[in-house]
Write a structure and sequence with these properties.
Layout (H helix, E strand, L loop, with lengths): L1 H32 L5 E10 L4 E13 L3 E3 L5 H6 L3 H22 L6 E5 L2 H5 L3 H12 L6 E6 H6 L1 H13 L3 E7 L6 H4 L6 E4 L1 H4 L10 H12 L3 E4 L5 H10 L3 E2 L8 E2 L6
Parallel strand pairs: 2-4, 4-5, 5-6, 6-7, 7-8, 8-9
Antiparallel strand pairs: 1-2, 1-9, 1-10, 2-3
Helix pairs in contact: 3-5
The chain binds ligand C2E and calcium ion (CA) (3 copies).
The site of one calcium ion (CA) has 4 residues, from loops.
């Protein structure tokens, strides 16, 4: 019996170390991922019902891992934050998204095409962030008006005053700032009013409920009217169905992003 227990413990230990080995491997390979050019950006269109046209793309990072295959950001962004690698990765994202979008603008003669870039909390509090953003614009030749920076409420609430300062530095250049995942945090009219932003994105969890049996559209309705009263643009994310669109349009939301139009795809599959 004593032997059995010992064996069982050994098996448990082996399993644990297997998982830990994978995590360690992921962490270590993260250090070489940039140099090895393993990151790619996928792009998902943002569509305007007013013009029935794609006005821009959101860039979404993927990691082409040599052993684990294509990894979505949920698998490595927090790891990249823990290790501090997110700063360098974020710079690469900015540079890559700006260069690609400028290329599309020229090739397709669409000078107004926009690109939205997600920031992580660490990037947002980096005092060098505005300079890094400006440099990506200068290096690529993309105009500030074509760049959208997406931040979340939780990022803003970490240090409200400093966040506003950063947002103003970006907006003074002409860069747009959008508030992502709106509605899932501690949104309130009083602080939304004080934020220097151009648009809010309604989180997918609310859009998903439209047309469902036990739907709670009160939040969607409130977000749209709140945004309108503040003169903000509203973009709905996670739009998957026709009825999402007809409902949102009826409520006065004319900008959409979601699988209904396209999943995020690599740049070479984007048709302008
Ligand atoms: P997010 O900014 O809220 O991005 C939207 C997510 O919803 C994306 O997941 C997108 O693929 C997914 N999505 C879009 N339309 C639909 C739809 O109709 N239905 C459903 N079910 N999902 C839809 P993804 O690409 O896995 O990204 C997850 C999150 O990772 C993003 O959420 C964002 O917070 C973060 N992320 C992505 N790229 C970057 C990046 O370059 N830097 C940083 N810091 N974070 C990033
Ligand atoms: Ca986003
Ligand atoms: Ca979002
Ligand atoms: Ca979201």
């Amino acid at each position: 019996a004593k032997r059995d227990g010992k064996n069982r413990y050994a098996i448990y230990e082996e399993r644990m170390s297997e998982q830990m080995r994978e995590e360690l491997h992921l962490k270590q390979s993260l250090h070489h991922a940039l140099d090895n050019r393993e990151f790619v950006l996928h792009y998902q269109p943002q569509v305007s019902a007013r013009t029935s046209q794609v006005f821009g793309y959101e860039s979404l990072i993927r990691w082409n891992h040599p052993d684990f295959g294509v990894l979505s950001p949920n698998h490595f962004i927090s790891l990249a934050e823990e290790t501090g690698m997110i700063i360098e990765i974020g710079e690469w994202v900015l540079q890559e998204a700006c260069h690609q979008t400028r290329k599309w603008q020229v090739e397709a003669s669409q000078p107004d095409l926009k690109v939205a870039v997600n920031l992580s909390a660490q990037q947002f509090v980096d005092s060098m962030l505005p300079e890094k953003v400006f440099r990506a614009l200068e290096d690529s030749g993309l105009s500030p008006e074509s760049l959208i920076i997406e931040i979340t409420e939780t990022m803003v609430l970490q240090d409200f005053d400093r966040s506003i300062e950063t947002m103003e530095r970006l907006r003074n250049r002409g860069i747009k700032v959008h508030l992502d995942d709106f509605g899932v945090g501690f949104s309130s009219l009083s602080y939304l009013n004080r934020l220097p932003i151009d648009a809010i994105k309604i989180d997918r969890s609310f859009v998903r409920q439209i047309g469902e049996e036990k739907h709670d559209v009160a939040i969607v309705n409130a977000i749209i009217s709140m945004a309108k009263s503040l003169g903000l643009q509203v973009i709905a994310e996670g739009v998957e169905k026709k009825e999402h669109i007809s409902y949102l349009k009826r409520k006065g939301c004319y900008e959409y992003q979601g699988y209904y139009f396209s999943k995020p795809v690599p740049a070479h599959l984007v048709t302008l």
